[in-house]
Backbone:
């Protein structure tokens, strides 16, 4: 008679297969112990979505106000990628028991961060491309990238793996956006006076960002 | 950043110049030779000043102030006089239209922060598509020997994207203008095929595919925004009709057998236009002057111009 392939109720009805942990093959050294529980992560995802949604709308509004054609077209692509990031974050929320209504899925951690986001969006004149790009790509996006990376590192590697995958994907694109913004700024800031404008703008916004506690409200 | 930007506030670099008066006049013309001639005689000083020293000056010198009728009213054929120049004029017009479509989709995202999320996703996607179209037509312009800024820009596409109700924007831009784009791009593909220009044919073919998607966005959102609101639906329809009429450029794009740019019925059906809507478009676009009227007017304008030039040299 052949060995049992399916277990029965009594000990002599067990199969003969060698026992393995779920993490043995391939070997998985991850351990439990994330910094955020489900509720805390859902709140953070709403905060991230707020930042992505508003950055998307801000860049979209700027397209008509910047005279440089390559900046217009570059922003057009990044608008779509920010929308996809906000969409993916919104779709993670019901998986974190935080509702399905995407209309209310974005939430600023506090008024200070909302004010910071509106300060980033404030420049509207055609002469202000440096201020626009410096705020978005020199301050907001680098801050988001740092927080996404930190969250992906410190959330539970096993239980919250879908959030990690999501943040890693958004971070990958955000790195590319920052590199694009850096290139645009390097090109536009071709005099000391323009470089000073960029430096001043970034310093002003960094101060506002620090006051607000950043995208999660817990410290920039 | 403020909301609801006006067309004169669109940011441009120093290569661009703007001229709306001529296209505005073209859109209002009736099917009457004398009126068309008079309209262009009135615009002559403006047209002459606008073309002076630029690539259109040879056309002005050859045809007089009605050269635009020749550019717009005769089909593009590779072997006809000035066909390369006329192709560049059309290509440049499309490039400007794509740029304004990018700006319009972007402003719709900024102007309506409380719009439904799926609507925002569609507009964001449109931003990327239009950005690619700007890049494609800049490359095609170069491919045809042209360059950005060599012809004046008119902003009447963006004007259709300034309404304060999102349903009017999608009715005007996505249904009327992107619908027009379907007609123009199908005509460009036909031209590229005749010329054996595979680069142009393939590039414009991809753009046309995107435009069908944008028309579908429009069809879906007009339906969604006006659900249970017949008054708003009628307002959207009226606005779309108004834009369609304006963009038929005096019958140049129409369903008439002598149309320079025929209505791309098959593409429009694929994009979600009903048979009734296409029929209505035939009626709207047939209201402008016929090709025979415009040809006759163009010939009178040309002769008067040449007579004036002969008089000037005699004096």
Residues:
């Amino acid at each position: 008679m052949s060995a049992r392939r399916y277990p029965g109720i009594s000990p002599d009805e067990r199969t003969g297969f060698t026992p393995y942990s779920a993490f043995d093959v391939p070997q998985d050294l991850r351990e439990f112990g994330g910094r955020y529980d489900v509720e805390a992560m859902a709140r953070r995802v709403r905060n991230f979505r707020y930042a992505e949604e508003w950055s998307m709308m801000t860049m979209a509004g700027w397209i008509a106000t910047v005279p440089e054609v390559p900046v217009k077209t570059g922003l057009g692509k990044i608008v779509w990628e920010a929308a996809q990031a906000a969409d993916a974050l919104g779709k993670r929320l019901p998986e974190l028991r935080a509702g399905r209504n995407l209309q209310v899925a974005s939430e600023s951690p506090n008024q200070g961060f909302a004010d910071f986001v509106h300060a980033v969006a404030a420049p509207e004149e055609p002469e202000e491309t440096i201020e626009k790009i410096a705020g978005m790509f020199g301050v907001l996006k680098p801050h988001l990238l740092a927080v996404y990376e930190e969250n992906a590192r410190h959330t539970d590697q096993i239980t919250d793996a879908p959030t990690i995958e999501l943040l890693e994907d958004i971070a990958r694109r955000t790195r590319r956006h920052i590199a694009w913004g850096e290139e645009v700024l390097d090109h536009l800031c071709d005099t000391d006076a323009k470089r000073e404008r960029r430096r001043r703008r970034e310093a002003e916004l960094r101060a506002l960002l620090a006051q607000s506690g950043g995208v999660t409200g817990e410290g920039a | 950043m403020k909301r609801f930007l006006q067309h004169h506030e669109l940011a441009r670099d120093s290569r661009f110049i703007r001229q709306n008066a001529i296209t505005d006049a073209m859109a209002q013309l009736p099917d009457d030779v004398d009126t068309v001639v008079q309209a262009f005689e009135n615009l002559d000083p403006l047209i002459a000043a606008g073309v002076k020293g630029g690539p259109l000056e040879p056309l002005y010198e050859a045809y007089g102030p009605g050269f635009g009728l020749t550019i717009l009213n005769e089909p593009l054929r590779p072997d006809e006089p000035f066909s390369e120049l006329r192709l560049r004029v059309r290509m440049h017009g499309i490039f400007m239209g794509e740029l304004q479509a990018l700006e319009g989709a972007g402003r719709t995202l900024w102007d309506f922060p409380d719009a439904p999320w799926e609507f925002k996703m569609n507009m964001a996607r449109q931003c990327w598509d239009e950005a690619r179209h700007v890049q494609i037509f800049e490359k095609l312009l170069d491919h045809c020997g042209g360059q950005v800024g060599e012809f004046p820009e008119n902003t009447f596409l963006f004007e259709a994207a300034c309404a304060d109700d999102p349903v009017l924007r999608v009715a005007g831009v996505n249904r009327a203008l992107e619908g027009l784009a379907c007609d123009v791009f199908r005509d460009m593909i036909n031209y590229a095929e005749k010329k054996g220009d595979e680069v142009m044919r393939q590039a414009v073919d991809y753009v046309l595919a995107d435009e069908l998607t944008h028309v579908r966005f429009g069809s879906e959102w007009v339906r969604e925004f006006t659900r249970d609101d017949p008054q708003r639906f009628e307002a959207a329809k009226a606005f779309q009709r108004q834009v369609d009429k304006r963009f038929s450029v005096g019958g140049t794009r129409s369903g008439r057998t002598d149309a320079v740019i025929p209505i791309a019925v098959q593409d429009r059906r694929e994009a979600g236009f009903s048979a009734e809507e296409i029929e209505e478009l035939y009626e709207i676009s047939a209201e402008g002057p016929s090709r025979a009227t415009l040809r006759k007017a163009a010939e009178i304008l040309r002769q008067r111009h040449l007579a004036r030039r002969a008089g000037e040299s005699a004096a």
About this structure: Residues 161-188 of chain A form the longest helix (28 residues). Chain A is about 60% helix and 0% strand. The interface with chain B takes residues 53, 56-69, 72-77, 79-80, 82-84, 87, 90, 102-103, 105, 121-124, 126 of chain A (CB under 8 Å).
